[in-house]
Design goal:
about 550 residues, seven-stranded antiparallel β-sheet, alpha+beta, about 35% helix, single chain
Length: about 550
């Protein structure tokens, strides 16, 4: 896969030979690049980027959040997925918080934060630098401040009404009692102190030390659910990725209860169509993709969260062929992104993968180095600033992922004490017989599972370079029924033809953050050179060295 000039749309691509960072904010990419230049590897740089994003993109991810990290270690020659998704608090019984509205924001909405444990576990197993060095760029940004971008201000504005309910949140992020303005300086001294304490004392500071004490005290005083037992019981999980082949490439994603099985199944279904011949974003291609995504979405909602998910069946080529045969000339209604026990007439239903078995507010970033290490990370707080709660004295905004669990008691993803959340965050790596070809991922809640395969097909089927593949206009069909979100850079003749096929279109405009913010890195098989791509829909920025 040589670098292609096809599909250049908006930004020039970024190249490098020694390393590449593609993240959701330029200062976070600078932080990672500093670590690479100082001799760190891709894992060191990835943790530096994660910590910096906590500071410069505080509404998307951070120490109070959770995520997945897919690491390829060249030294060991192994793929590992680091799952640092916390569980629901032990007090989160269905009777206590079954209704989604009761856990949408506020102190009753967080699951156990896993980012601190995840970042330090990655450093311990695969890193070469200590936490103090890796956290240093983030600490500098937090103490010295950084000027807000236009999109920093834009994304914060939506959460201001919720944030103003909590004095500690207002003090940390709304010092003027209003939405921030682009160009204003944001400093976060409490967050800097927390990061320094973690760098010096390890994860114990967060899960059983001073930060844990402050978090639990706040929960006790404000009706929250997280207890000291919840924190001390937290543990990261090292997992083997799951994968499918797509036109000679192997596409990796995290295993269930991560929802990557949805986009992997979608690729399996689409492999049976000649996507290149049908054309990029033609009505024929988009209709089949939308319907394939609905089928895979129904299967994921039905099976990904069960105790023993039928993963091999969901990713089986014969099962994909059965599902592909269900795609007709007209749009079918989808049940939507979440499980529902009440089905509408004609709804796309889940298949039976067992019969085929043979045995967002979120952020994403990618890091690669010259030694062959590669890291893809997707992590989040859930909504903007998560729960909207900042633990006093820490600068740490807590997630609201309990809201992502279902209110339908029949759902495999229903609220329950100590339960693992079925989660849409899912970084992808694409390999061939010669090695890594590209890393790709995106934020976007359940839309992640449809944006990711579109970007992958843009590269493999349409020969686009990584920047063009990320920029290309997208569609998303996550709502119940036949509604499809579309970017209007897709031709009006194509949109009209989709309408005639029964799709109800929600025109988002030419560039819409609603369909994600992809970040990726491509590797040339002959030169080993890197090409980085970052999404202009958000503050994405790639830097090479």
């Amino acid at each position: 896969m040589a670098f292609s000039a096809r599909g250049i749309v908006h930004r020039s691509t970024v190249t490098g030979k020694r390393g590449m960072i593609a993240s959701a904010h330029p200062l976070a990419s600078v932080a990672g690049l500093r670590i690479l230049i100082d001799g760190g590897n891709a894992i060191d740089a990835a943790v530096a980027v994660a910590a910096a994003l906590n500071v410069v993109e505080p509404y998307m991810s951070g120490l109070g959040g959770d995520g997945y990290m897919h690491i390829y270690s060249a030294r060991e020659g192994e793929h590992k997925v680091l799952d640092y998704m916390g569980r629901a608090p032990y007090a989160a019984t269905f009777d206590e918080v079954g209704e989604a509205a009761s856990r949408e924001r506020g102190p009753r909405s967080p699951i156990i934060p896993g980012a601190c444990g995840g970042w330090l576990a990655a450093l311990e197993r695969y890193g070469t630098m200590d936490a103090a060095a890796v956290f240093q760029p983030a600490i500098e940004y937090a103490e010295q401040g950084f000027p807000l971008t236009v999109k920093n201000a834009y994304f914060t504005e939506f959460s201001v009404p919720e944030m103003l309910k909590y004095p500690s949140t207002t003090a940390n992020y709304l010092p003027h009692g209003r939405a921030p303005l682009a160009g204003e300086l944001m400093t976060q001294p409490d967050l800097a102190n927390s990061m320094r304490a973690i760098a010096e004392g390890g994860a114990e500071v967060f899960y059983s030390g001073d930060i844990a004490d402050k978090l639990v005290r706040y929960m006790e005083e404000n009706g929250g659910l997280i207890t000291s037992r919840d924190l001390t019981d937290f543990a990261v999980e090292w997992q083997e990725p799951v994968s499918v082949t797509y036109r000679g490439y192997r596409v990796f994603g995290p295993p269930p209860p991560c929802q990557a099985v949805q986009y992997l199944e979608t690729l399996n279904i689409m492999e049976g169509f000649d996507v290149a011949a049908m054309g990029h974003n033609s009505a024929a291609t988009l209709h089949r993709f939308i319907e394939a995504a609905k089928l895979a979405q129904a299967d994921r909602a039905e099976y990904a969260g069960v105790e023993e998910p039928p993963t091999s069946g969901l990713l089986d080529k014969e099962f994909a062929g059965q599902r592909r045969a269900e795609i007709g000339a007209q749009a079918r209604p989808s049940g939507g992104e979440r499980f529902t026990s009440d089905k509408m007439a004609g709804e796309v239903l889940a298949g039976d993968p067992r019969a085929w078995m043979r045995s967002e507010c979120t952020t994403h970033f990618s890091v690669a180095d010259a030694a062959g290490n590669a890291v893809g990370v997707t992590q989040s707080l859930g909504a903007g600033y998560g729960s909207a709660v900042v633990v006093p004295g820490t600068g740490i905004a807590l997630n609201n992922f309990l809201y992502w669990m279902d209110s339908d008691p029949q759902s495999p993803n229903a609220v329950g004490p100590g339960r693992k959340l079925e989660m849409c965050m899912s970084p992808a790596q694409v390999w061939d017989d010669q090695g890594l070809r590209f890393l790709i991922g995106t934020p976007g809640s359940y839309g992640i599972l449809q944006t990711t395969p579109q970007m992958i097909m843009n590269v493999i089927d349409h020969g686009m370079n990584i920047q063009a593949a990320i920029e290309a206009p997208r569609v998303k069909a996550t709502a119940p029924g036949t509604l499809v979100d579309v970017e209007t850079r897709i031709g009006e003749d194509v949109l009209l033809e989709l309408t005639l096929k029964g799709h109800r279109l929600n025109r988002l405009g030419p560039w819409a953050a609603d369909v994600g913010g992809g970040q990726g890195i491509m590797v040339d098989p002959e030169s080993g050179g890197f090409m980085g791509g970052a999404d202009p829909r958000r503050d994405g920025y790639a830097l090479g060295w």
